[in-house]
Design a protein that fits this description.
This protein has about 190 residues and is α+β, with helices and mostly antiparallel strands. It has helices at about 1-15, 30-40, 40-45, 55-60; strands at about 20-25, 50, 50-55, 65-75, 90-105, 110-125, 130-145, 150-160, 175-185. A hairpin with a 7-residue loop joins strand 7 and strand 8. The N and C termini lie far apart (about 55 Å).
């Protein structure tokens, strides 16, 4: 009877969240691209080499100048024995909502109330001889500005460094990141 009760409590606990995170992000490279395009148009134009713009290339990566994120889910700690140092050895699973009111396209800010809704699994193993990071997510980005495409996406990222293996060992020392996004209007990639 006691074993059943312990098992029952554990199963119920698995469905409850034990962590809530709030994060405000500012993306200085995106803001820098906006600044150069709006305040130094001649310098921005001179940074072109044929169709390639150096400033645009250096400041790309973030689709917004800032954002606010809310995460609710579960956190698990990786620990091999009682005396292990925990550090960054954690995994998170849960729901992430990110919101903002501007989007960046070609180093111009466009008023656009948008939000991301996603389910995410993310973790880190940090040991003396090995570092491993991973992240898997599925979600949707919704824009109020019709100039931007609403989409659904699935993404994965993994980075591994094993200090005991050869630096040329691709399986143990590699990183990859991929995302597949599909328009909700046209179903095109």
């Amino acid at each position: 009877m006691a074993d059943d009760l312990i098992e029952y409590d554990y199963e119920i606990d698995a469905y409850y969240s034990n962590i809530f995170l709030l994060e405000a992000s500012v993306h200085p490279m995106g803001i820098g691209g906006l600044y150069f395009r709006q305040n130094h148009e001649k310098m921005y134009d001179r940074s072109k080499i044929e169709d390639f713009n150096l400033i645009k290339a250096a400041t790309t990566g973030f689709e917004e100048p800032y954002s606010l994120s809310f995460f609710i889910g579960r956190m698990m700690i990786f620990k091999n024995n009682k005396d292990d140092y925990i550090g960054k050895n954690r995994a998170y699973i849960g729901y992430l909502v990110t919101v903002g009111d501007y989007s960046i396209k070609d180093n111009f800010a466009h008023h656009d109330k948008w939000y991301n809704l996603e389910f995410k699994l993310k973790g880190t193993r940090d040991k003396e001889d090995r570092d491993l990071d991973w992240s898997f997510r599925i979600g949707s980005r919704i824009h109020q500005n019709t100039d931007f495409v609403k989409n659904i996406y699935i993404g994965a990222r993994r980075s591994s460094i094993d200090y005991k293996k050869s630096a040329w060992s691709v399986l143990y020392n590699s990183a990859f990141s991929t995302m597949l996004a599909v328009s909700t209007r046209t179903y095109e990639l």
